[in-house]
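Input (structure):
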């Protein structure tokens, strides 16, 4: 019997589950969709170049003045702007968010990677020791991507105290809203009064607006002004500004959605305990499976079952927490992948 296209299609999983991008599984809220439509109708007009309304709303939320906030085309772009504003060497953990070395290079900086500990955590003492005369910036990804591990208050206190005052400490809190461990400090609350501490946040993750590209940083006014000088005018577009404002108005709904994801994170982590050794506890909306050489096999096998996860060759697999049904699809695909070996 010949295999027809229809046969192949009937074997294919009904829907593809996307658990590879650390995105929220929920679409934008009705109020946000409405704001997007409203802004789209005015798309022939330039946006407010300084995002005044949005920066004021973010400033209120953060309890700071608006001159400490810069918005940009995703927090990744703001990281590049930060590097461009100070130049020099960027010390960061590795493996961590893979864009750090790329963005540092693109912005004219040099990247100094510092290996993580065997527990997949930032090695903060080694990072402090790696700071040299040319270092302008040191990045702490808290919680860390892709492992979900997070640095605690005491170790961060020691680290921040060791960093010279002319070196910026950038705390990337892209996943801050998913943190449940009370020992993991909110960097703004803990270190916001230090002029060399910069906090990076985004509306891509908990707020579920990855496609709109909207990030913000909170810094000392002089640092914020220096970053503002290298941001290309109008780079926070009008739709993103309107959607961001509407999203910030829906804080309660955001927190409710985050709670669903966090509960699922703990459930999936519990199920993984019997399947994959040494999955580190995660404070993000994703889990790290340190499967080493099996990473590519697991990634491919899950994809064959219609579940897209992120494989890091030779290291591990990162799965983003989705809806309960999507996570069950992942667990079934993973069990299958582990049974079929490499
Ligand atoms: N920082 C970290 C740690 C991330 O994981 C990501 C996105 N994967 C970003 C920053 C970039 O987010 P944005 O969409 O705001 O550019």
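Output (sequence):
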């Amino acid at each position: 019997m010949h295999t027809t296209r229809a046969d192949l299609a009937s074997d294919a999983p009904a829907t593809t589950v996307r658990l590879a991008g650390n995105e929220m599984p929920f679409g934008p809220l009705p109020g946000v969709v409405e704001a997007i439509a409203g802004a789209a109708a005015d798309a022939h007009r330039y946006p407010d170049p300084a995002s005044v309304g949005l920066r004021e709303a973010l400033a209120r939320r953060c309890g700071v003045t608006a001159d400490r906030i810069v918005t940009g085309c995703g927090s990744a772009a703001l990281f590049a702007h930060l590097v461009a504003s100070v130049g020099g060497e960027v010390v960061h953990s590795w493996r961590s968010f893979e864009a750090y070395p790329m963005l540092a290079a693109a912005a004219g900086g040099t990247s100094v990677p510092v290996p993580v500990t065997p527990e997949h955590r930032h090695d903060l003492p080694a990072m402090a020791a790696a700071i040299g005369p040319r270092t302008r910036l040191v990045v702490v990804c808290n919680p860390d991507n892709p492992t979900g591990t997070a640095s605690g208050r005491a170790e961060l206190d020691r680290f921040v105290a060791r960093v010279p005052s002319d070196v910026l400490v950038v705390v990337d809190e892209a996943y801050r809203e998913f943190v449940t461990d009370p020992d993991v400090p909110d960097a703004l609350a803990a270190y916001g009064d230090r002029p060399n501490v910069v906090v990076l946040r985004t509306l891509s993750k908990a707020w579920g607006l990855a496609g709109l590209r909207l990030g913000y940083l909170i810094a000392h006014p002089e640092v914020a002004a220096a970053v503002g000088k290298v941001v290309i005018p109008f780079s926070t577009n009008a739709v993103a500004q309107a959607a961001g404002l509407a999203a910030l108005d829906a804080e309660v709904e955001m927190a409710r959605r985050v709670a669903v994801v966090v509960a699922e994170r703990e459930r999936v982590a519990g199920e993984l305990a019997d399947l994959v050794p040494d999955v580190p506890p995660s404070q993000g909306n994703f889990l790290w499976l340190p499967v080493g050489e099996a990473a590519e096999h697991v990634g491919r096998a899950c994809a064959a079952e219609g579940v897209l996860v992120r494989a890091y060759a030779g290291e591990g697999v990162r799965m983003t927490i989705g809806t309960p049904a999507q996570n069950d699809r992942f667990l079934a695909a993973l069990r299958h992948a582990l049974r079929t070996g490499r």
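Notes: The radius of gyration is 21 Å. Residues 22, 74-76, 97, 141, 145, 172, 174, 202, 204, 210, 215 surround 4'-deoxy-4'-aminopyridoxal-5'-phosphate (CB under 6 Å).
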